[in-house]
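Quick one, tokens below:
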């Protein structure tokens, strides 16, 4: 028994469900239609119970995962679509295709599923609705569709009834929903029966002897974001972020909901190689996206979090022409493709948060930032500036200049922009829309329909100017990068900045938790690469990894835009270790999750899309352990030179974080790699085919 964490895990996994006698609100089924996964391991039953209400259930390998659970929506009129219904038509189809990502954690993705489409009609009222269920070998997607019809034109959704009634207790990892800081919280690990009342997705649960399940959503477009609301000891239902009017969603038929998704695996590592969320999104709508450029970048950012520089103007202003030229020089010297500059535009002075972001201009630089000169200097040095649009949580102010702001960026050779919405809970007022009279204002949730539509407008406007987007403080990822490949990455979790003076720190178990929770949604701009690991002073705020652990993040946490986040002057003492950051790609052809336990450790290998090199990242929590994995992902018959960036024998994130060593080994696919990891430590490896 390694420590208290192991004891807690044992308790979580063997805890007896206190609600074993809890009765389902779903009546005994009278009839159901079954649809199975292509491999026949997973089965979804959907039908109408004795009271005429829609339900579904899920089994895997003959074992119940989701007990009979409600389906349907409640309209603002009081009508319930999904109660007292009759089936008009059912249709089952098979689908099997392989599609190519223009960039990503894997090049080729197979979409192999069986679909059931059930068309229903309300017995009283005649409103029609379709339930579409797709069953994959490793997951299930469920969505509602409302066809064009005379009985239902304008749709105002007051509630969604979709339930997830788990068959038994297990371990759960979750963050609370409807809190002031959106998704930026540390994950809590509890028994499923003791998880919170309102939770964000992805929400991950692991059951003794399997399986492991994550609930999320896919293709969130023109709809409210879904959280989970507890309805029983082992039961949750969809909870849609409301408008200020109380209505959850406004739509007009024909319309459809996002997919409600269950990712399913036998082991935690299976979730990392699960692409169901992407497969449930529509194909690329932008056409040729060769202008979308994955890459690594540095930036004028971390210095502000360390209070060395300021976003606002003055004697310590960070975004000056002089500072930016130095960052461009560093980027050019070390092969980074971009330089992020925050605080370049007018609006950061004074209490811009309290003013609601009204002071920001997205087309007016500060006088000490020569945008035109810097853009040309960067171009000459083979580097691009990365734009930054902090809105202060004020979408109307941003939208008023959005088109001209992206046009300005494009005119200065900028290919990607980081957007920000630093404001808590609800965003600043909208001035029009459903339920708001002229002259009135209303505050809307960051992940409600109003803001989902705003983020969509941002992505589509940026695409017209051939600019990619990196959203911070935005709504969670739901796989829309497939449909809009310029939506490259986002934050939507606690990132590196919490390890600065912003604090308190994330803790050493944060990364091996993110890998099985937040990262299931999509790429994250975590901003790794901090080498000055003692910079934040108090232990509670220290960067909670070793230096080797920071290197591992470039493989463990996927993003097509990866930052070397530290100050340039902090890298020269460790240039041999910095070489890994220079070498590691951001665009991959294959991804293999080799091992992992949620919250404890994770090991991932990825193959470079543009060479035969493989890279491996392993990250542990606060406990020392030995990583021991087979190298059978390497090509058979080839020999590789493995360059290991590993923790030194006396490394420890709290007492000796920068102790590391670099070694080389000759390996083949028949070998195993066994390497000790220090407390809070990690391992980064490059495998290069031997000549």
């Amino acid at each position: 028994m390694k420590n208290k964490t192991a004891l807690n895990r044992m308790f979580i996994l063997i805890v007896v469900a206190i609600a074993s006698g809890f009765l389902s609100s779903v009546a005994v089924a009278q009839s159901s239609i079954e649809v199975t996964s292509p491999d026949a391991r997973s089965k979804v039953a959907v039908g109408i119970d004795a009271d005429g209400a829609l339900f579904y259930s899920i089994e895997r390998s003959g074992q119940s995962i989701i007990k009979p659970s409600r389906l349907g929506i409640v309209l603002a009129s009081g009508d319930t679509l999904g109660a007292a219904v009759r089936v008009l038509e059912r249709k089952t189809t098979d689908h099997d295709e392989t599609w190519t990502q223009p960039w990503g954690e894997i090049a080729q993705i197979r979409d192999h599923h069986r679909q059931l489409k059930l068309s229903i009609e309300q017995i009283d009222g005649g409103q029609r609705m379709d339930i579409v269920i797709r069953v994959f070998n490793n997951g299930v997607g469920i969505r509602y569709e409302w066809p064009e019809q005379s009985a239902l034109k304008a749709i105002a959704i007051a509630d969604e009834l979709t339930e997830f009634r788990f068959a038994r207790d297990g371990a759960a990892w979750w963050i609370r929903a409807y809190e002031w800081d959106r998704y930026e919280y540390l994950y809590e690990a509890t028994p499923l029966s003791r998880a919170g009342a309102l939770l964000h997705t992805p929400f991950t649960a692991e059951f003794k002897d399997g399986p492991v399940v994550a609930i999320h959503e896919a293709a969130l477009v023109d709809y409210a974001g879904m959280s989970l609301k507890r309805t029983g000891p082992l039961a949750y239902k969809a909870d849609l972020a409301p408008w200020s009017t109380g209505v959850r969603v406004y739509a007009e038929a024909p319309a459809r909901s996002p997919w409600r998704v269950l990712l399913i695996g036998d082991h935690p590592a299976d979730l990392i190689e699960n692409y169901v969320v992407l497969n449930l999104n529509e194909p690329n709508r932008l056409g040729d996206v060769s202008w979308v450029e994955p890459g690594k970048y540095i930036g004028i950012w971390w210095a502000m979090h360390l209070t060395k520089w300021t976003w606002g103007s003055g004697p310590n202003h960070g975004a000056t022409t002089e500072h930016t030229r130095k960052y461009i020089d560093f980027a050019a010297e070390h092969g980074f493709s971009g330089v992020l500059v925050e605080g370049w535009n007018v609006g950061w002075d004074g209490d811009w948060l309290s003013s609601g972001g009204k002071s920001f201009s997205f087309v007016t630089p500060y006088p000490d930032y020569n945008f035109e000169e810097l853009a040309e200097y960067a171009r000459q040095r083979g580097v691009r500036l990365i734009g930054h649009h902090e809105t202060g949580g004020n979408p109307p102010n941003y939208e008023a200049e959005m088109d001209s702001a992206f046009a300005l960026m494009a005119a200065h050779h900028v290919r990607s922009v980081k957007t920000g919405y630093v404001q808590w809970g609800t965003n600043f007022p909208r001035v029009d829309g459903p339920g708001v009279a002229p002259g009135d204002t209303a505050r809307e949730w960051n992940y409600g329909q109003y803001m989902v539509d705003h983020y969509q407008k941002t992505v589509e406007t940026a695409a017209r100017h051939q600019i990619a987007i990196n959203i911070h403080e935005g709504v969670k990822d739901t796989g829309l990068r497939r449909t809009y490949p310029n939506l490259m990455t986002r934050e939507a979790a606690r990132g590196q900045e919490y390890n600065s003076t912003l604090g308190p720190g994330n803790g050493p178990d944060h990364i091996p938790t993110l890998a099985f929770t937040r990262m299931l949604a999509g790429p994250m701009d975590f901003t790794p690469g901090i080498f000055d690991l003692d910079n934040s002073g108090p232990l509670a705020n220290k960067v909670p990894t070793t230096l080797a652990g920071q290197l591992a993040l470039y493989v463990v946490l996927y993003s097509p835009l990866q930052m070397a986040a530290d100050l340039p002057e902090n890298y020269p003492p460790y240039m041999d270790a910095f070489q890994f950051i220079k070498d590691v790609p951001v665009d991959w052809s294959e991804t293999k999750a080799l091992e992992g336990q949620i919250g404890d450790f994770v090991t991932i290998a990825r193959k470079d899309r543009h060479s035969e090199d493989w890279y491996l990242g392993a990250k542990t929590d606060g406990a020392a352990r030995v990583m021991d994995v087979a190298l059978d992902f390497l090509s058979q018959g080839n020999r590789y030179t493995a360059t290991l960036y590993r923790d030194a024998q006396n490394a420890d994130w709290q007492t000796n974080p920068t102790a590391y060593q670099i070694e080389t080994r000759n390996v083949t696919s028949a070998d195993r790699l066994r390497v000790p990891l220090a407390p809070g430590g990690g391992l980064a490896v490059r495998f290069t085919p031997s000549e």
